[in-house]
Amino acid sequence: MQFFFEVLIAGLLSGVMYALVALGFVLIYKASGVFNFAQGAMVFFAALTAVGLQEKFGLSIWLSIPITMVVMVALGFLTERVVLRPLVNQHDITLFMATIGLTFFIEGFAQLVWGAEVRKLDLGIADEPIEAIMNSTGMLVSKFDVTAAAICGVLVAALAFLFNKTKIGRALRAVADDHQAALTVGIPLQHVWGVVWGVAGFVALVAGLLWGARNGVQFALTFVALKALPVLILGGFTSVPGAIVGGLIIGATEKLAEVFIGPLVGGGIEGWFPYVLALLFLLVRPEGLFGEKIIRRI
């Protein structure tokens, strides 16, 4: 039973980090209806830039992080201004294809500037068991996983406060409900979209630093975003709470399946189990746990 709880806790802590990646998708989709396929590339670009600044200019990690933050926020603003703003009122598939093109551009540009080799990212957080928990309960809980989950939790709470209790948050909800109605009451759509893309860049930075420190800074970081897809399917594409709950469910079930079912099927289950779970969930509730049912009149 103790081992079961160790695995469950590790999965839940990973789930919080999945939720952070999914949150970047939710913010943009909620504000503009665009599924930002480039979010994974932004995560990779953020981690690679932070490490690249350290290597090329000899900066400390704590100096490279704020510089990278400025770069990522600027990237978000530029993406909205240069790529998506000219495509306003175009078909959804056009916007989606634009984000796919942006994905390849960001991935190629990042490796052109900083190189493609795998790097180590040290945030000064040891990946070792917490002694107090180990001595009192005997369970092995990683200090890095707990710290990363706490950072993600604080960021998610701050974003939830921003979008629920502030003026920009009310404007975002209005834009998400009806673009035309928001325009008629004087809400500047382009400013709201710019802010959201800037925040998405910041979210990508935090996710890139945490996942890069955990798995190494490499091209595989772009695939972390693909793990956010099952999270979005379970939680709903427009719900911040849904991203959190979906992340916890995917993280926990993925880890439990890897440990308890993986040996029975030959391993590798953690790579595809979340997508099977999401597929089964689509058959039951396609709008997600917190999504709104779409009713179309014909």
Summarize the structure.
The protein is an all-alpha fold and 298 residues long. It has helices at residues 2-32, 39-57, 61-84, 92-114, 131-137, 143-165, 167-177, 179-184, 189-215, 224-235, 240-265, 269-284.
The CATH class is identified as Mainly Alpha
What quaternary form is this?
single chain
Radius of gyration, in Å, reads: 20 Å
Order of H and E elements = HHHHHHHHHHHH
Q: In total, how many beta strands?
A: 0
Q: Would you tell me the structural class of the helices and strands?
A: mainly alpha
CATH architecture: Orthogonal Bundle
Helix/strand layout:
Elements: H1 2-32, H2 39-57, H3 61-84, H4 92-114, H5 131-137, H6 143-165, H7 167-177, H8 179-184, H9 189-215, H10 224-235, H11 240-265, H12 269-284
Any overview of this molecule?
It is built from 12 helices and no strands. The chain has helices at residues 2-32, 39-57, 61-84, 92-114, 131-137, 143-165, 167-177, 179-184, 189-215, 224-235, 240-265, 269-284. Helices cover 76% and strands 0% of the residues. The protein has 298 residues and is mostly helical.
Keywords:
298 residues, mainly alpha, ABC transporter involved in vitamin B12 uptake, BtuC, 12 helices
